[in-house]
């Protein structure tokens, strides 16, 4: 019998997750399908109930529901519990929901394994304090950067995250006007690219040999990738690798089998060029 999975969000039509999970299923011989489901902005709780009633086995959660989803799930991994955001849910046979967050491990695998970027001893700047940002802070700090500054449009959300994660490393935060000094790695975890915008960044914040990473992926350069290239980044990386890596960890949680990611990243890059 075919098992059903989905990614929920708003907007969600742009998502590559159905393609990624279909490739993982082919590769590992798993009998499943995976769709996108747009949920009304005020309809997460009823949307989850509906998916559960339809017999879905699990879902991914994307913008803007990761923090709301955290509130809906009583059973969570320790990392998701601390992150305050959930991007993966398992619908258990007994009717309960288990939540996890695979974004941070997905980002770190892409930075470190796929792009050979060193984080230890580096100055990191994280833009955004929403669901995606919350999930990556603890995993990034595990790699012992010398500092992590979180900048967000709503400054209080950034400072709240600093308090929450203070025990895990040297972390500061505030509004974009509070950014000072320069950074080795700048990670964009805002939804600004979805609106064709770049957060209001000061000049001269990227170190020579600095790297920029946009969690957003699109078939053409995102506004932040364009900004990175204009400001001399030696690498300007989009979020495709993270998307595939975090999906692989979700797949493993649902199916108990770890798919191979590199071939799937290459496949999607090739589709972009045809
Ligand atoms: P949320 O809605 O939870 O958070 C959005 C964040 O973006 C908030 O910090 C918000 O600031 C900020 N923001 C929104 N618009 C602007 C703007 N115009 N200028 C500056 N800041 C802005 O979304 P998520 O955290 O779930 O997702 C963020 C992005 O990361 C999305 O583009 C998503 O596609 C991408 N993503 C990619 C993943 C991957 O695997 N590649 C995984 C997860 C996310 P404020 O708090 O002030 O509202």
Essential attributes:
274 residues, Rossmann fold, 2 domains, six-stranded mixed β-sheet, 10 helices, 12 strands, 22% strand, binds NADPH dihydro-nicotinamide-adenine-dinucleotide phosphate
How would you sum up this structure, described in words?
There is one protein chain. With 274 residues, the chain is of the alpha/beta class. It has two domains: 3-101 and 244-273, Leucine Dehydrogenase, chain A, domain 1 (Rossmann fold, 3-Layer(aba) Sandwich), CATH 3.40.50; 104-238, NAD(P)-binding Rossmann-like Domain (Rossmann fold, 3-Layer(aba) Sandwich). It has ten helices and twelve strands. A six-stranded mixed beta sheet has the order 2-1-3-5-6-4, with helices on both faces. Strands 9-8-7-10-11-12 form a six-stranded parallel beta sheet, sandwiched between helices. The longest helix has 16 residues, at 240-255. NADPH dihydro-nicotinamide-adenine-dinucleotide phosphate binds next to helix 3, helix 5, helix 6 and helix 9.
Number of helices: 10
Total strands: the figure is: 12
> Biggest sheet, open or closed, and with what strands and sense?
6 strands, mixed
Written as H for each helix and E for each strand, in order along the chain, the element string is EHEHEHEHEEHEHEHEEEHEHH
**CATH topology call of the largest domain:** Rossmann fold
> What is the CATH architecture annotation of the largest domain?
3-Layer(aba) Sandwich
The ligands found in this model are:
NADPH dihydro-nicotinamide-adenine-dinucleotide phosphate
Give the CATH level 1 class of the largest domain.
Alpha Beta
CATH superfamily of the largest domain: NAD(P)-binding Rossmann-like Domain
